[in-house]
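B., you asked whether I could sanity-check this one before it goes into the benchmark set. Here's the sequence:
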Amino acid sequence: MSLFKSEFEIKIPFHDLDPMDVVWHGNYIKYMEQSRCDMFNKINYTYYDMKNDNYAYPVAKMQTKYIKPLRFNQEVLIETSLEEVEPAIIIRYKMFDKATRVEVFSAETMQIGVDIKTGESVYTPPANLLKRLEKINEK
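And here's what the prediction gave me:
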C-alpha cells in the first residue's frame, strides 16, 4: 500500500519531440521529475524542506517501461505514488493518455538519502517528512 498518491497533468510541447515526431525518451524523465516535485508539494514537503533538514535524495536506481509513444499536444495524466521512505524513497509513476486512459509509460525510482554536510548515506527519513505524511494520513 502506498504512503501517498497524486496526479499531475502535462500537455506535450513541440520542443520535446525528436526527429521521428514523438517525445524523445529522455523527456519522460523530465516529466517524472515534474510529477515528483508536484507530489512532494502536495505532501507539503518540498525540496527546500529537504535541504533545510540537511537531506538530499539523488536518484540511485531507475526502471522505465515505454509502452506507447507520446506526441505533440497530447494530454497526459501522471499518477505518482510514494511507496516507501525507509531505508530509501521508492516512487512509482504511471503515465496515461488523458482522453483514453491508455497507459503509455511506467517507471520506478529509488532515491537514497544523503546527509548534505557529510555526503554520507542516511537510511532514516527526515522527521519532518514523516510528520507531514502522518498528518495527511490522519485525514
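One thing to flag: The chain has three helices and seven strands. Otherwise nothing jumped out at me.
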